[in-house]
Amino acid sequence: MNRVWNFSAGPAVLPISVIQEAQEHLMALPGVGMSILEISHRSKTFEAVIQEAEANLRSLLRIPDHYKVLFLQGGATLQFSMVPINFLRGSSADYILTGTWGQKAIAEAKREGSPRVAWSNKEENFIRTPHAGEVQIDPQAAYVHMTSNETIQGVQFPETPDSGGKPLICDSSSDFMCRPLPLDKYAMIYAGAQKNAGPAGATMVIIRDDLLERVPENMHSMLDYRLQAENDSLYNTPPVFSIYIVMLVTRWLRDEMGGLEKMHAHNQKKASLLYDTIDESGGFYRGHAVKECRSLMNVTWRLPTEELEAEFVKQAKAEGMHELKGHRSVGGIRASIYNAMPIEGVQTLQAFMKEFQRKMG
Ligand SMILES: Cc1ncc(COP(=O)(O)O)c(C=O)c1O
Residue 287 is part of which domain span? Predict the structure, then answer.
């Protein structure tokens, strides 16, 4: 097997056992005689798949009955539009801005109403999330939007912010299921599958019933959360394969990783290997985010020069560690260490960082 350590920000590494099971059953699902790629989305077989994917998500995230779980398409990017199309409609909403993806969400909201930047860390180049009490929520806001983990900057909310009693809507694309969540603080959470939940294709939306009731009449069908919920995500053909892999990944999270508390502890252990190496490097490696807001999923840092950064990426790749180049908009290095990245991969990177500093520092 010629697999490398894949530090891609997404689509990203998946659990080996999931890929193996998918491979084993790709020609024909047991007892079905057809591939998951070939079955009808209206078949009993797929019904069982989507129901199990939902049940697994519900048990892992402890999702109460008054929330619906939807599997949509269009990525988190379509949610940047669907949220304002359904809930903004000419009014105002508060956006907590902690990085690039939040900016994109605001840009789409502007087409539908007046999003207000309730708090931004742009002037510091997005290195942290707000402290408690720093965000003043507008009493007129239809909702409050946040990005729990800014994938490009590597900045993650350590805790859920206070939304001042307004419905809190969260883009959780890059830290979905990386830790348990106080779900009752959120009116809606959405996440593209292709980081922590599966391959690209499905977008999970967890939405509270009272928010669904606010969906206006006469919406375009595919953009209508209520219609999608009424049809159990089967209004049209859903991304069957992606949902099947989400089912396998959530099974793996439950059975092999032991649930989200254990996954969280494991993620903390993995991330601290890299952050400790950065902190102990005497300034050779400089982390981007302030310590309290460091992402468990996307570790971002700089080296003394861009030339050294390019050399780091090149030498790491030669040793089997791929996709470490930071996003083009911020530069530096980014190691995405999602749930499925084994600790051995992180240890290999840590050893490489130490050796690189010894040679080049
Ligand atoms: C936090 C966050 N939001 C949104 C997106 C956009 O996701 P998609 O490409 O699924 O639309 C990404 C993708 O990397 C992301 O990391």
Answer: 259-360
Most informative mutation of 174, 298, 323 for ligand 1 (most atoms within 8 A of CB): 174
**326 and 249, same domain (yes or no):** no
pLDDT tens per residue, range 146-175:
999 999 999 999 999 999 999 999 999 999
Ligand 1 proximity of 154 Cβ (cutoff 6 Å): no
- Tell me the per-residue pLDDT of 217-237, one tens digit each, with 9 for 90 and over: 999 999 999 999 999 999 999
| Residue 295 Cβ < 6 Å to ligand 1 | no
Nearest to 186 by CA among 140, 147, 136: 147
Residue 1's pLDDT is 73
Q: Where are the alpha helices (DSSP H) in the chain?
A: 16-24, 44-61, 75-87, 100-109, 209-212, 225-230, 240-255, 260-279, 306-318, 343-360
Catalytically annotated residues: 101, 171, 195
Same domain, 29 and 164: yes
Dihedral, CA of residue 128, residue 75, residue 257 and residue 252, to nearest 10: 180
Residues 80 and 194 in one domain: yes
Shortest-distance atom of ligand 1 to CA 150: 1
CB 192 near ligand 1, within 6 Å? yes
For residue 201, give every residue at least 6 positions away whose Cβ sits within 8 Å of its Cβ, in sequence order, or none. Answer: 73, 193, 194, 239, 241, 242, 243
- DSSP secondary structure, 114-135, as one string: EEEEEEE-GGGTS--PPPTT--
Report pLDDT for 110: 98
Q: Let me know whether 306 and 218 are in one domain.
A: no
Predicted confidence at residue 330, as pLDDT, reads 86
User: Does residue 10 form part of some domain?
Assistant: no
Q: Which parts of the chain have pLDDT scores under 70?
A: none
Give me the pLDDT at residue 329, please: 82
**Residue that finishes a domain, picked among 233, 255, 277:** 255
Flag whether 9 is in a domain.
no
Q: What per-residue confidence (pLDDT) applies to 109?
A: 98
